[in-house]
Amino acid sequence: MAMLEIKNLTVAFDTAAGLFKAVDGIDVSVDGREVLAIVGESGSGKSVAMLAVMGLLPATATVTADVMNFEGKDLLAMPANQKRAIIGKEIAMIFQEPIASLNPCFTIGFQIEEVLNQHMGLRGNAARQRAVELLQMVGITDGAERLGAFPHQMSGGQCQRVMIAMAIACDPKLLIADEPTTALDVTIQKQILDLLVSLQDRYGMALIMITHDMGVVAETADRVIVQYKGNKMEEADVLSLFENPQSNYTRALLSALPENAVGDRLPTVADFEDTDGGMSR
Amino acid sequence: MSVPVLEVKNLRRDYVSSGGPFRPAKVVHAVKDVSFTLEKGKTLAVVGESGCGKSTLARMITLIDQQTSGEIIVDGATVEARHGVSAALRRKVQIVFQNPYGSLNPRQKIGSVLAEPLLLNTSMSPAERRDKAMTMLLKVGLQEEHFNRYPHMFSGGQRQRIAIARALMLNPSFLVLDEPVSALDLSVQAQILNLLKDLQDEFGLTFVFISHDLSVVRYIADEVMVMYFGEVVEHGSRDAVFEDPQHDYTRTLFAATPRTDISSIKARLARKSAA
Fold first, then answer.
1. At A264, is the pLDDT very low, low, confident or very high (cuts 50, 70, 90)?
2. Residue B271: how many CB atoms within 10 A of its CB?
3. Model confidence, pTM
4. CB–CB of A212 and B253 under 8 A?
5. Reported ipTM exceeds the 0.90 cut
6. How many CA atoms lie within 13 A of A117 on its CB side?
7. Residue A9: pLDDT band by 50, 70, 90 thresholds?
8. B186·A212 Cβ contact <8 A
């Protein structure tokens, strides 16, 4: 049985112009120790699907699914207090803008200890020690001094490390990373990706990488889901996806990579669309 | 040989943080002795990580910030910025910023965004300005009905098209593009890069293209300049830099760029299953 199993997930937003389906009948399953990448451009519903799992969507969203199980427990039917015990502890998430996702009013020490406090019941010195240990794990060596720093005193890459430290604080079984490196430089991106993959490997987590960057997919994923306008276009293991893409949209994404440029022009997604603006599989 | 569009000699910029009674003033050398020349119709890419001084360089050559020392020569004339920059010179230099959400006034309709440079810098009649703005709007791949819309009604890629159109309204000598595609999705990025190439071919534009993404640079640049901690560590033609990087930092950059070819994915999977 898969660790996270989602069948026929639909997320609709109630807008002034009527109901808008951001995610339209998507199946996702992840096993323990697996790196799954969900790829798509903005508006493809890749983040929304995972936010629905975390229960982080606003009240205007309607989430329905035939199955949404984490380790056999139904996340949709579960009462809120039970869900809170899972979210943030067993399933953790990191976001795109590291500086914006930390609270600017509190030190990073306070924010890491808050997680430990809430989910592990660690307080005082025990929490402090664990926080230093966590910072060490994500590559911040002077953790003891860094605990007193505020987010604005750290660089974007370091803030993302702190976010990762908070996410892995409770030994999650599943880590969801939503565009974790989009706001970062290539050299820092490489460090963060290496860190995520090594943590995933060392602690046997499952990792879901949400990204629009085929480069990130090639460097990290075992299996890939390609999403377009709320629909799943393709699901394949990473090698067959790059070697032999099945859907037109995947081919479009791959050929939009500047290093794959043939001649003087980059093909865009529009070149692969059908005449009615749809996308054939 | 024709006069280069832009020539920069020993450009330097220091930032001095004000000291206090118990703290000495600190000097940060953001850009150290940068020199280059740029010919008409060419693209120079400036590459480096955040904090390496590439945006400071951009602000100096667009005459937004003044250099601490060194010379900037635009179309053969040295810029004397100490007594203010003349309007004629300002017209020759335009910039497109990274974040298309932050660089457009939310209360200004697109038509007037595009016509404003003409209003400020020329004596054209309103009808002429309107015509020119409309022509440019179509040129960057937008439609006539977009003329009276507000920035929030556009996607990120469309806004970047608007920012490019605005920068081109005055026929500048060169255009500085400060990370123009790094906030955009891959497929939208491809559209904007195509647009830039088309515009360059059509108008013979000269670009200074600032980026940290080597795959984009490889696609668009004629010349590449790599910066590291305010210094130029490598400068050469695109092929020379990409095929035979000389400096360690350039090699680090190449090693950090994600690889999407089949053989490197196979190698990664093999390493993983072996571990």
1. low
2. 9
3. 0.81
4. no
5. no
6. 10
7. very high
8. yes
Cβ-Cβ contacts under 8 Å between A and B: the total is: 103
Residues from chain A that touch B179, judged by Cβ atoms under 8 A, are none
Do residue A238 and residue B265 have CB atoms under 8 angstroms apart? yes
Confidence of residue B95 (pLDDT cuts 50, 70, 90): very high
Query: How many CB atoms are located within 10 Å of the residue B56 CB?
Result: 20
Q: Which residue has the tokens 């400036």?
A: B46
Q: How many residues does chain A have?
A: 281
Domain of residue A161: give its range. 98-169
What is the pLDDT at residue B36?
Answer: 93
Q: What is residue A66's three-state secondary structure?
A: coil
Instruction: Report which of A193, A122, A109 is spatially closest to residue A149, judged by C-alpha positions.
Output: A109
Count of domains observed in chain A? 1
Domain presence at residue A107: yes
B191 token code pair: 């559209």
What phi and psi values does residue B252 have, to the nearest 5 degrees? Answer: -60, -45
Q: Residue A275: what pLDDT?
A: 55
CB-nearest to B49 from A187, A212, A254 is A187
Assess whether pLDDT exceeds 60 at residue B1.
Answer: no
Residue A79 lies in a domain: no
In a mutational test of the A interface, the residue from B182, B191, B259, B260 whose CB has the highest number of chain A CBs within 10 Å is B260
Which pLDDT value is given to residue A263?
A: 63
Scan for tokens 């599989």, then name that residue.
A281
The answer to whether A242 contacts B260, with C-beta atoms less than 8 Å apart, is yes
Q: Which residue has 């997680």 as its token pair?
A: A115
In a domain, A278, yes or no: no
The residue whose two tokens read 């070149």 is: A271
pLDDT at A76 over 60: yes
Q: Look at residue A111 and tell me if it is in a domain.
A: yes
